[in-house]
């Protein structure tokens, strides 16, 4: 078959959930998705999932670009691709990511950071050429974090896609495209947890459970999970948590409770996964003087925070991370393999499976006590 025999990809009409403005209700809409341009791939979604950052996006964080299609976790099949795309073919199973890995910029060559300089975090809601591939009611729709997975079809620059070569359940691959991997990566790539370490994790959503699993595999012996929701105790234990702390059951602060559980010293590593700004200073104080590290993962609504000066002077470190330090093309396949071998089991994460029609009610579903992760099946 010659190239002339291949029909070029056409405009697709499909359904997506659109966020028309900050604090406006999400709406299921018919949208059009243009063919991918030269460096792009059009993906037919199999599963997507909900991550905390999508809700920040619905409120116009970190930038006010509307209308937009949210969603940055997902997995799908390559439906069509641009003329310059290499390394992918039609039918490949792929996950979107919001940080690329070119492999050759000065940051990609370092072990220290996953912030690729060539394919950075993109917040303007547009593809590389400054335009969008999606529209509804004649209006262009902004993308979200170069992903926009709450749609039957999406167009993504090939630099922000990773192929799934392992036999991973599609909904689990979706969880690995952000939340769980962010937590796992924070333990693995940012803290570099050593065997025998003590760890505390504030907030037991998918990110916190990822931290617990990563810490457990790396040999941490004390892993304290902290959450106000008693239903998270069982979830934490399923991933390797050794102690559970519900701050509502005590008058003492989280820091005091963690210190009590660790002979007064605090933990080697404390991971803040809630995005509650006031907890950052407690996370720092909960670590050991002289070498303790607080890793800040949760993104919050506030831009500034307060930290106790003396806590840092006493030799503690505070570290921020995006995507848990995961370099998508080098590190995600490692996690896909662990999932295939059942070393990582994600069934416990999957609390709700919904359709795209049900997705506009996402905030209500998230309030349910047993909610950990919402999958959207297409
Ligand atoms: Zn790079
Ligand atoms: Zn996320």
Strands, helices and their partners?
Blueprint: E1 12-18, E2 27-33, E3 40-49, H1 52-58, E4 73-81, E5 93-96, H2 106-109, E6 134-136, E7 139-141, E8 153-157, E9 161-163, H3 170-176, H4 179-190, E10 198-202, H5 206-217, E11 222-226, H6 232-239, E12 243-245, H7 254-261, E13 269-272, H8 278-285, E14 293-296, H9 309-313, E15 317-320, H10 328-340, E16 350-354, H11 362-366, E17 373-377
Parallel strand pairs: 10-11, 10-13, 11-12, 13-14, 14-15, 16-17
Antiparallel strand pairs: 1-2, 2-6, 3-4, 3-8, 3-17, 4-5, 5-9, 6-7
Helix pairs in contact: 4-5
Bound molecules: zinc ion (ZN) (2 copies).
One zinc ion binds next to helix 2.
Main features:
single chain, 378 residues, alpha/beta, Quinone Oxidoreductase, Chain A, domain 1, Rossmann fold, 2 domains, seven-stranded mixed β-sheet, six-stranded parallel β-sheet, 11 helices, globular, binds zinc ion
CATH class membership of the largest domain: Alpha Beta
Largest sheet: 7 strands, mixed
Structural class: alpha/beta
- What CATH calls the topology of the largest domain is Quinone Oxidoreductase, Chain A, domain 1
What is the ordering of alpha helices and beta strands?
EEEHEEHEEEEHHEHEHEHEHEHEHEHE
Q: Whole-number radius of gyration?
A: 21 Å
Describe this structure as you would to a colleague.
By secondary structure, this protein is an alpha/beta fold. The chain has 2 domains: 3-34 and 72-178 and 326-377, Quinone Oxidoreductase, Chain A, domain 1 (Alpha-Beta Complex); 182-325, Rossmann fold. The chain has helices at residues 52-58, 106-109, 170-176, 179-190, 206-217, 232-239, 254-261, 278-285, 309-313, 328-340, 362-366, and strands at 12-18, 27-33, 40-49, 73-81, 93-96, 134-136, 139-141, 153-157, 161-163, 198-202, 222-226, 243-245, 269-272, 293-296, 317-320, 350-354, 373-377. Strands 3, 4, 5, 8, 9, 16 and 17 form a 7-stranded mixed β-sheet that branches. It has a 6-stranded parallel β-sheet with strand order 12-11-10-13-14-15, with helices on both faces. Bound molecules: zinc ion (2 copies). The site of one zinc ion (ZN) has 8 residues, from helix 2. The site of one zinc ion has 8 residues, from helix 2.
């Amino acid at each position: 078959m010659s190239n002339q025999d291949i029909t070029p990809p056409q405009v697709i009409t499909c359904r997506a959930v659109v966020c028309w403005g900050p604090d406006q209700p999400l709406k299921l809409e018919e949208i059009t998705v243009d063919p991918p341009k030269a460096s792009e791939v059009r993906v037919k979604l199999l599963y997507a999932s909900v991550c905390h950052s999508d809700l920040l996006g619905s409120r116009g964080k970190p930038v006010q670009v509307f209308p937009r299609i949210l969603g940055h976790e997902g997995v799908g099949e390559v439906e069509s691709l641009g003329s310059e795309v290499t390394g992918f073919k039609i039918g490949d199973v792929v996950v979107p990511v919001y940080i690329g890995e070119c492999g050759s910029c000065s940051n990609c060559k370092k072990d220290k950071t996953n912030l690729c300089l060539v394919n950075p975090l993109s917040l303007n809601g547009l593809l590389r050429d400054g335009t969008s591939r999606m529209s509804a009611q004649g209006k262009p729709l902004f993308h979200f974090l170069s992903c926009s997975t709450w749609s039957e079809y999406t167009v993504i620059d090939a630099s922000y896609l990773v192929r799934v070569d392992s036999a991973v359940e599609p909904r689990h691959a979706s969880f690995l495209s952000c939340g769980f991997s962010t937590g796992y990566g924070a333990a693995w790539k940012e803290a570099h947890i050593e065997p025998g370490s003590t760890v505390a994790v504030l907030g037991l959503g998918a990110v916190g459970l990822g931290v617990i699993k990563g810490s457990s595999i790396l040999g941490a012996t004390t892993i304290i999970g902290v959450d106000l929701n008693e239903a998270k105790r069982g979830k934490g234990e399923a991933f390797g948590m050794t102690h559970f702390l519900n701050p509502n059951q005590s008058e003492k602060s989280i820091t005091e409770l963690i210190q009590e559980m660790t002979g007064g010293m605090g933990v080697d590593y404390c991971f803040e996964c809630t995005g509650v700004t006031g907890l950052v200073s407690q996370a720092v104080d909960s670590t050991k003087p002289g070498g303790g590290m607080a890793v800040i993962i949760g993104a919050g609504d506030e831009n500034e925070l307060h930290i106790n000066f003396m806590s840092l002077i006493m030799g503690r470190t505070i570290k921020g991370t995006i995507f848990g330090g995961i370099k998508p093309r080098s590190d995600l396949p490692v996690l896909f393999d662990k999932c295939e071998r059942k070393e990582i089991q994600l069934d416990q994460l999957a609390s709700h499976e919904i359709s795209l029609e049900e997705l506009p009610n996402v905030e209500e579903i998230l309030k349910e006590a047993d909610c950990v992760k919402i999958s959207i099946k297409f």
